[in-house]
Design brief:
366 residues, 13 helices, alpha/beta, globular, seven-stranded mixed sheet, two-stranded antiparallel sheet, binds nicotinamide-adenine-dinucleotide, binds glycine
Length: 366
């Protein structure tokens, strides 16, 4: 059983996200049915050193069955591979294989591989198609959809990149069976974020089924992925390039979350854990900045607790966290801007003064 969700974009750029169990085996067949890939022969699969032993052979076999000639590049697993030098090595490999404009890149892995391979595809010969095959919960519910691609600089994360929408997304939930627990919780953080921002329907469904998601129940997981993709597809359709004040909602929880990751050193907490803490803090800040609906903070806390995303014990000082927030990409005119949630699906992006943030941080007890 597979579900197909269409991301609707102007200029005949709509694409399908297929979500289901066992659908990796139909990857080549599904790609063949896409106009943009109908005449493609050469494909480069980009994956990482953890995912390659698990799913590369299966992926290449699925591509071969549909007549694709697939080469591969395996990058070291981890955030360090989102790097210009690694992108350069992949471009060189593509040039040595004499891949032309009719080739395609397949990103097989989590958000690191998706962002890196998407960026490689966006720039090679000024742009070739990319197909996203997400294998982490986070990449299924967020990064594989929406076309943001990037590499990091020593100065910060995702500072160089472009929007390059995939031609197709294939999310085979069976691949999640091998995902480590920490990465599972990381994806749960992004699911909680989407549920809180999207609608009462998603939020209260997720609250009811949080323990099932935390314990990796397959039908609850598949439905959570579908709901997130429907939500994200809607956001991207309304504000593809984050210029209409809509897509910024996807940064809910990320302002403090990202600051915690930077100030504590990447890896001290998972991204999802840090985002969950950021969601709790954003509601506290909203309480001080105009108020929140009764019961919302408690319901959100119940959801995060049930997903195993507990309050964090952060050692970084309030001043260090504020300093890290000052480099947030949402800031304008030097002012920090927060996604403030006032209730389920009731959010706004608002500037908040440094003093107000510091006061809230000091009272927060991280
Ligand atoms: P990741 O890609 O590093 O994957 C996490 C770990 O899981 C890695 O060690 C990976 O090798 C391993 N892994 C992947 N699939 C596996 C599987 N099925 N079984 C076993 N191990 C597996 O991390 P992530 O959390 O998927 O993505 C994080 C990245 O995504 C960050 O770089 C972030 O900036 C980016 N991101 C991008 C967007 C976007 O819109 N483009 C959105 C959110 C996050
Ligand atoms: N994950 C943030 C975005 O896609 O905009």
């Amino acid at each position: 059983m597979a579900t197909k969700i269409i991301v609707e974009l102007p200029g005949a750029r709509d694409y399908a996200v297929r979500i289901g169990s066992g659908i990796l085996d139909a990857l080549g067949e599904n790609m063949r049915a896409i106009d943009q890939l109908a005449r493609t022969t050469d494909v480069l699969v980009v994956t990482d050193s953890n995912v390659a032993p698990l799913y590369l052979a299966q992926t290449k076999a699925a591509l071969a069955r549909a007549g694709f000639k697939a080469a591969d590049v395996v990058v070291p697993a981890g955030e360090d591979s989102k790097d210009l030098a690694v992108a350069g090595e992949i471009w060189s490999a593509m040039a040595q294989l004499a891949l032309g404009r009719d080739c395609a890149v397949v990103a097989l892995g989590g958000g690191v591989v998706g962002d890196l391979a998407g960026f490689v595809a966006a720039a090679y010969l000024r742009g070739v198609p990319v197909v996203q095959v997400p294998t982490t919960l986070l990449s299924m519910v967020d990064s594989s959809v929406g076309g943001k691609t990037a590499v990091n600089l020593p100065e910060g994360k995702n500072l160089v990149g472009s929007f390059h929408q995939p031609s197709f997304v294939c999310a085979d939930v069976d691949t999640l069976a091998t995902l480590p627990e920490r990465e599972w919780r990381c994806g749960c953080g992004e699911i909680a974020k989407s549920a809180a921002i999207d609608s009462d329907d998603f939020f209260f469904w997720m609250l009811e089924h949080a323990e099932g998601l935390a314990s990796r129940d397959s039908s609850i997981t598949a439905e959570a992925v579908q709901r997130c993709v429907v939500f994200k597809a809607g956001v991207v359709a309304r504000d593809e390039h984050e210029t209409a004040g809509v897509r910024e909602c996807l940064n809910y929880g990320h302002t403090l979350g990202h600051a915690i990751e930077v100030a504590s050193g990447f890896g001290a907490f998972s991204h999802g854990e840090a985002v969950a803490e950021g969601m709790r803090f954003a509601v506290e800040l909203a309480r001080n900045q105009g108020g929140v609906a009764e019961g919302f903070a408690e319901a959100q806390a119940d959801l995060l607790d049930a997903l195993g995303l507990q309050r964090l014990n952060v050692e970084a000082s309030s001043a260090d966290l504020l300093e890290a927030m000052k480099r947030d990409k949402k800031n304008r005119g030097g002012q920090i801007r927060f996604v403030l949630a006032r209730d389920v699906a009731q959010w706004e992006v608002a500037p908040v003064s440094d003093d107000a943030i510091l006061a809230a941080l000091n009272g927060w007890g991280l």
